[in-house]
Amino acid sequence: MAHSELSSRLVPLSDGRPGLRGGIHVEIREPDAGSQEPESSIQNPVLDFISSDETLDRCGEIIVASGWNLYSYRRNPVFQNAHQYGDIIFTLGRALLTEVRAGKLFQRVKFATNVNPMAKIAYGLYRGKFLNAVSVGFIPLRWENGGDSKAYSRKYLEQELLEVSAVAIPANPSALALGLKSGAVEKADLSDLADLIHQTLDISEGAVVAAVEGGPALASVPGSSTQLQSPSAARYARLMSLARQLHQLLKHS
After folding, report:
1. How do residues 119-137 score in pLDDT, each as one tens digit?
2. Residue 77 to residue 162: CA distance in whole angstroms
C-alpha cells in the first residue's frame, strides 16, 4: 500500500505499524433480552456498541463495513481509554464480540468494573449517555479517492482493525461532573480511581493538591521536569491531568 497520500495523518498503532485513528459518535445500547448476555448492570457490565458505520465522517471519508479485516483485533480485543496501551490502568474491558452486522461494525464490550475503577466510571458514563463516542485505529489497505463529482474525499474499501478505544475520560470534564450529579458515577468510584493514580505514579494526594494550586509538585516527580516528550513523562502528564480533575470534583461534591 502506498502511504504517501496519507502520510500526514499516520500515527503508530498498538503493534507499532502506522495507521489512522478516527473518532465517531456511536450507537450504544444495553444487550437485547434475547441475547446471550443478561440485562446490563453493574454485576454484568456489558454494552453493545455500533463502533463504525458507512456514514460520511468529519474528514469527508467513508469506511466500507464489508472491508473490515478483524483478525488482528480479535486476537487481543481490548477496549482501552484514549488509545493508551502498555498500562493496565487504561484497560477498560474487552470485546466479547466484534463483527459486521447490516453494514455496521458491531461490538459487545464487557467492562472490567470489578478490578479497575476507571472502567467502572467509563461504564457508568457510557450507560448514562454522558459519553457517546469511540475511536477506531486501523490500517488502510485499499481505497478510492473521491473528488468534485462524489460526496466523499476518500472511501476505504478494505482496512485492518487494530484498536477500539473509549474517548479520553478527562477530555470532557463536564461528563464526569454530570455523571456524578446524576448518579451514573459514584463518588466512591472517583476516590478509588484517584487512589489508584496516586499509587501508579507513586505520589501523595498532597502532591496533586499542590499541583492544582500551582505549587512545585510537578518538578518534584521524576520524569516530569523537562523531558515532556518522553513516553514516561507523557504518561505521567495524562494521569496527573486526570488526578487534578478528580481532586476538583471530589473537593466540590
Report:
1. 999 999 999 999 988 989 9
2. 9
Report which of 234, 195, 233 is spatially closest to residue 82, judged by C-alpha positions.
234
Tens of pLDDT, residue by residue over 10-45, are: 999 999 999 999 887 788 898 976 665 555 566 789
Query: What's the whole-model pTM score?
Result: 0.84
Residues near 147 by beta carbon (within 8 Å), at least 6 away in sequence: 153
- Determine how β-strand 104-111 pairs with β-strand 27-29: unpaired
Report the C-alpha gap between 245 and 159 in whole angstroms: 37
HSE-up (13 A, CA, CB side) for residue 216: 1
**Sign of the dihedral defined by the CA atoms of residues 156, 161, 167, 168, in that order:** negative
Beta carbons within 8 Å of 231's beta carbon, 6+ residues apart:
none
